[in-house]
Write a structure and sequence with these properties.
Chain B: InterPro entries: NDUFB8 (IPR008699). The complex is a heterodimer of chains A (about 600) and B (about 180). With about 600 residues, chain A is mostly helical. Chain A is built from 26 helices and 2 strands. Chain A has a two-stranded antiparallel ribbon. Chain B has 4 helices and no strands. The longest helix of chain B has 24 residues. Chain B is rod-shaped, with a radius of gyration of 40 Å. The chains are: A mainly alpha (about 600), B mainly alpha (about 180).
Chain lengths: ~600, ~180
């Protein structure tokens, strides 16, 4: 084996070992020490991150990618499934970023979940999730990817329903599982098509063997999978509902890692999509609709976590738009930069929530830039990075995407929606900052505001460094696969900045209205539409379960018996024969004399006619 | 213990109150036979008492041959619709002990269908959502018909359209090719 490949594989193996060791220790009956979460779980992730820097530096200096296949699980005449790992540009860069973010989140969670009696179990779940995510990202065949895919789905369910005594949390966890399952149907159907037509689930083999085939069907399946996992419009309600889980869960799963799995799948399968205009257009339009719709919903939410959740959904829509532009690498860059600032936004909101004694409504926050300066600064930096402020992390990926969008031959409405959503991003970001950090406090006087704990400060600091320099570092060290368009009119070059500034100024104007008392007659309809999340949960979550459950109950208790015994069985025979019998008996009037007379007359006639 | 059950069964049968196979069924041991749709006021009162509802509130499900018997038709309201602040016996289920259960109780639990009133009426919600989606689909169709793109033109080479480089003779006057002017 080539030394580089050996380095890659051994690093990954070491990472898995380091991450699985704390989990396996908990299966023994030995009691865990008091700070197991901090000393074992967090240290394991930190060590895994440091280990992952080795393949990263090797890749950045040599540019060498590798695919390794080790243990063979199944060999049939048509299909082989092996344990194979792909160390390419995407997995080698994503793994250190995911581990860095997870390390920060776990350190934060040692503070956030400190009062929880089952904190160790919480960390176990997070570690299991991380292992599943690494399996997903490093998989070289769809079967292994599916193992990771399902793993992250199940851990998401367990973590969203962490406080399972709360009915709303259970409902949210159920929603996550059901919506992800609908997406899984797409993935499984895609896998089935590929297995039957291309006879392989191996990424390299699929790319080569599908050269001349019409890939629309499996691509639609994969897009459905991404719609479910990455909360695109249609299968999106689970993501805001997932905010029922603890904040570290929202920060890790539902912003940085799990929800990008769908986009990651499409990025991995992008060579299949390159030549299929239907799939690309579908991605573009779906992504544009998602980004605009969720940004609209985010404008009027009052729960800080819901705003950040819709922001995540909007950025996922933007990533989908990028895939629709046939720029998978830019989508990947956005995944990487987005992980930093979105996780930081969630950790800041977690810090604020705990400081205000579990208050999540932004209308009851305020003035925190004096009281929690570090958290407010990080919130501001994160929001600026999110809106694409020049030279912060988000700028390098977001601006590149908008430039690519402006200079491509693209659906005009998708372009419009994406630009509108970009300006909405600035609006709701300013709304969060204004309500949380600015103006005067609107919370109770005796709030346990405390950000002096290093377990809060250090993760935020690390993620702040990432949000500021992450984009620059990644951009400096990678090679772009597709040549970007570098010449364009100044209006297009500055379009992203212009719409963001426009949004910012609009939001500032609206924010100043909050302190002035003048009679406004708000237009209710759009406000209701936005606050009620487009009425999608209200309609879908009532209608579909009602229809299916009622039908199920009816079938189970009445319909089967009624059908077999009454409509097609004994009663049906009775209902069918009764009219026949009554018709026949009605015809028989019992007029014996008339019948005999007629009989005799016809007999005489026949005899006479035959005699002549 | 089985002997006690057997004795009870024999005693009930010998009383002669229940005829036929019904006597063997466990529900009938106490004398309560399979329930039927109530027709007179006495049966209605007995059914209301059995299901722990007031006689005024009791309303049997219509007898369409579906076999509901005398089970009451309770209002189709979900558990989420009930008062969260009231001190229920089972606070998570928002239900009191021995309360009559809706036929579709498992559909109306808090994790499933919710019938609580919405901010806007149902018809308005449907119109707005499907109108929005329809509008978006129509606009995407229009956007596909009239896409946005940067203007492109054919290339314009220098040196008289690369006349000599392309093997043209130096004596022949090259024709001028101008695709655009700067």
């Amino acid at each position: 084996m080539h030394p580089t490949t050996l380095m890659y594989t051994s690093s990954l193996l070491l990472m898995f070992a380091v991450l699985l060791y704390p989990l396996l220790v908990t299966f023994t009956s030995l009691p865990l020490n008091n700070d197991w979460a901090s000393s074992h779980a967090k240290t394991a992730v930190k060590s895994a991150f440091l280990i992952s820097l080795a393949p990263l530096s090797l890749f950045l200096s040599t540019g060498m990618e590798a695919v390794t296949s080790s243990w063979t699980w199944m060999v049939t005449t048509t299909l082989d499934i092996t344990l194979s790992f792909k160390f390419d540009h995407y997995s080698i860069i994503f793994i250190p970023i995911a581990l860095y973010v997870t390390w920060s989140i776990l350190e934060f969670a040692t503070w956030y979940m400190h009062s929880d009696p089952l904190m160790n179990r919480f960390f176990k779940y997070l570690l299991t999730f991380l292992v599943a995510m690494l399996i997903l990202v490093s998989a070289n065949n769809l079967f292994q990817l599916f193992i990771g895919w399902e793993g992250v789905g199940i851990m998401s369910f367990l973590l969203i329903g962490w406080w399972h005594g709360r009915a709303d949390a259970n409902t949210a966890a159920l929603q996550a599982v059901l919506y992800n399952r609908v997406g899984d149907i797409g993935l499984i159907l895609g896998m089935a098509w590929l297995a039957t037509n291309v006879n392989s689930w191996d990424i390299q083999q699929m790319f080569i063997l599908s050269k001349d085939l019409d890939m629309t069907l499996p691509l639609l399946g994969l897009i459905l999978a991404a719609t479910g996992k990455s909360a695109q419009f249609g299968l999106h309600p689970w993501l805001p509902a997932a905010m029922e889980g603890p904040t570290p869960v929202s920060a890790l799963l539902h912003s940085s890692t799990m929800v990008v799995a769908g986009i990651f799948l499409l990025i991995r399968m992008s060579p299949l999509m390159e030549n299929n205009q239907t799939a690309l257009t579908l991605c573009l339009c779906l992504g544009a609709l998602t980004t605009m719709f969720t940004a609209t919903c985010a404008l009027t939410q009052n729960d800080i976590k819901k705003i950040v959740a819709f922001s995540t959904s909007s950025q996922l829509g933007l990533m989908m738009v990028t895939i629709g532009l046939n720029q998978p690498q830019l989508a990947f860059l956005h995944i990487c930069t987005h992980a930093f600032f979105k996780a930081m936004l969630f950790l800041c909101s977690g810090s604020v929530i705990h400081s205000l004694n579990d208050e999540q409504d932004i209308r009851k926050m305020g003035g925190l830039h004096h009281l929690a300066p570090f958290t407010s600064s990080c919130l501001t930096v994160g929001s600026l990075a999110l809106t694409g402020t020049p030279f912060l992390a988000g700028f390098f990926s977001k601006d590149a995407i908008i430039e690519a969008l402006n200079t491509s031959h693209v659906n005009a409405w998708a372009l419009t929606l994406t630009l509108i959503a970009t300006s909405f991003t600035a609006i709701y970001s300013l709304r969060v900052i204004f309500f949380v950090t600015m103006d005067t406090p609107r919370f109770l006087p005796l709030s346990p505001i405390n950000e002096n704990n290093p377990a809060v400060i250090n993760p935020l600091k690390r993620l702040a460094w990432g949000s500021i320099f992450g984009g620059l570092l990644v951009m400096l060290n990678i090679n772009l696969f597709k040549t970007p368009v570098l010449t364009m009119p100044a209006e297009l070059k500055l379009a992203a900045l212009a719409v963001s500034i426009l949004g910012l100024l609009t939001a500032l104007e609206l924010a100043t209205l909050t302190s002035k008392q003048f009679k406004v007659t708000p237009l209710r309809t759009p406000h209701h539409f936005s606050t009620s999340l487009g009425f999608v949960p209200a309609i879908i979550h009532r209608q579909i379960p009602q229809l299916s459950l009622l039908l199920g109950q009816k079938i189970a208790s009445q319909m089967v018996d009624q059908t077999w015994l009454e409509k097609t069985g004994p009663k049906a025979i009775a209902n069918a024969t009764t009219p026949l019998a009554s018709a026949t008996s009605n015809m028989q009037q019992g007029l014996i004399k008339t019948y005999l007379t007629l009989f005799l007359m016809t007999l005489v006639l026949v005899t006479l006619i035959s005699a002549t | 213990m089985a002997g006690v059950g057997f004795q009870r069964w024999v005693r009930t049968l010998s009383k002669g109150k229940i005829s036929g196979i019904s006597g063997l069924l466990p529900a009938c041991r106490s004398g309560e036979i399979l329930t039927y749709f109530p027709i007179n006021i006495g049966e209605i009162a007995a059914a209301a008492k059995k299901y722990n509802i007031r006689v005024e509130d009791y309303k049997p499900i219509a007898d369409n041959g579906e076999g509901y018997g005398d089970y009451p038709q309770l209002p189709d309201r979900s558990q989420q619709d009930r008062d969260p602040a009231y001190q229920w016996d089972h606070p998570d289920l928002r239900r009191n002990w021995n309360e009559p259960m809706h036929w579709d109780f498992d559909m109306f639990i808090r994790n499933r269908v919710d019938t609580s009133p919405t901010v806007v009426p149902w018809s308005t919600m449907c119109k707005q959502l499907f109108g929005f989606v329809g509008f978006m689909l129509f606009m995407f169709y229009l956007g596909d018909k009239f896409p946005a793109y940067q203007p492109v033109g054919p290339k314009q080479f220098p040196y008289n359209n690369l006349h000599l480089e392309r093997g043209g003779s130096p004596d022949v006057e090259p024709e001028e090719v101008k695709n655009y002017e700067i």
